[in-house]
Write a structure and sequence with these properties.
Blueprint lengths: L1 E7 L3 H9 L1 E6 L5 H8 L8 H5 L3 E3 L6 E3 L4 E12 L3 E13 L9 E4 L2 E4 L9
Antiparallel strand pairs: 1-6, 2-5, 3-4, 5-6, 7-8
């Protein structure tokens, strides 16, 4: 299974991804917008972001990175390739491990797009 993320080339995350070749996709709940705003306002270049916003790092299983213990889903990824798309680079990766809280439901997930944090909508059908 593959996953991907796009990172602006002036971000500290970009430097880390290029150097380490791995990343974790942490999926927060739809109650965590304030926490994500705090994370987005800080750069890891300036210090320990985990400590600054009160997050708990947890060891990854298959890569040299940290999970976010407060996130109910953490997806460990190893970079396979990079695609330059202007001022961003799309990192295509292999999913090497997935951690999911037993009491988590996809309806609790939050995504970001268009400058807004969004909750996932209701289920409108199931694949048959």
């Amino acid at each position: 299974v593959e996953a991907g993320i796009g990172i602006h080339n002036d971000r500290y995350s970009f430097e880390l991804l290029r150097a380490e070749g791995c990343f974790v996709i942490n999926i927060p709940t739809n109650q965590d917008a304030a926490l994500l705003n705090a994370c987005g306002a800080l750069s890891g270049r300036d210090g320990d972001k985990f400590a600054a916003v009160g997050l708990t790092p947890a060891p990854a299983e298959a890569i040299d990175s940290s999970l976010i213990a407060e996130c109910p889903v953490n997806v460990e990824c190893r970079v396979l390739s990079q695609i330059d798309v202007g001022e961003r680079v799309w990192f295509v990766a292999e999913v090497v491990a997935v951690h999911e809280s037993v009491d988590w439901s996809p309806e609790q997930a939050m995504i970001y797009g268009g400058g807004c944090f969004r909750a996932i909508g209701p289920v409108v059908g199931r694949r048959q």
